[in-house]
Amino acid sequence: MVCQEEPLVVQITQLYEKISRLESLKPSEDVNTLFTRLVHACMHPNPIDVAKLCEGAQTMRSNLIRLCGEAEGLLEIHYSTILGSFRAPLDHLSIFPYYNNYIKLTRLEFDILTRHSIWVWHRVASWGSGPLPLTSILLATRHLTTTSFHNYDINPLANSMASRLVSSDPDLSNRMSFHTTDIMNVTDELRDYDVVFVAALVGMDTEEKVQIVNHLAKYMAPGAVLMLRSAHGARAFLYPIVDQGDLRGFEVLSVFHPTDEVINSVVIARRTYAPPVCCSQLRLPPHKCSDFQVFHST
Description:
eight-stranded mixed beta sheet, 40% helix, Rossmann fold, alpha/beta
């Protein structure tokens, strides 16, 4: 059991308390400073297993993840507003502080996709695309240059802001669409997508993640690819973890845990051709349970 006396937990708890006392999480000097300190504290390799945190630390972590999600959303709104004021917003994406991280992460995700699939991806869905859909934009402009992207977000303002960013680009505005709905309400249409990306903050805890995965397993086409963003080690204080054991209905193909400034882990899985079954119904040889690749950046 890892409790509050663990040095890393003490440091993160202190930052959490300061962040939780802020009047607003909109970008400001105080907000930027505290979250930068938090990210740096979590970025260093640490073998901590957040599943073994004591109850108080678990509660703190859950609350902190929600604060991080709120702050991240406000940061994206802030920069999407600035970008939307330019005549050609896509020419100025580099003003976003984490733009280079997105370049690295989407390149990594594309490389993993191509390593595990020979398909031509005609249609991609992005769940939780937000007001600044950098994942879709970077994949569409740098890697999947003929693919159509369908971005889902429950916030109409986020979709309106995102749509404005691509509207001045004839190619992207033709290949990229935005849907204001909870993808949990999307059923048969999911069968049309070759790849489904799920943002790290879609599903803030294990129960929500399991509901999402079960929904996708029910409606995604067999052979289609699911790409999830997760977290590992101390980085799990910033984002929820995707448990591979919860990916019923999918074959886990690869797991990647970065050790550089890219925070999110990447989990890629393929929708199986057999109906999803409960773990207790599985009767697989022991070696099959770990038949996936785990990669670490260098």
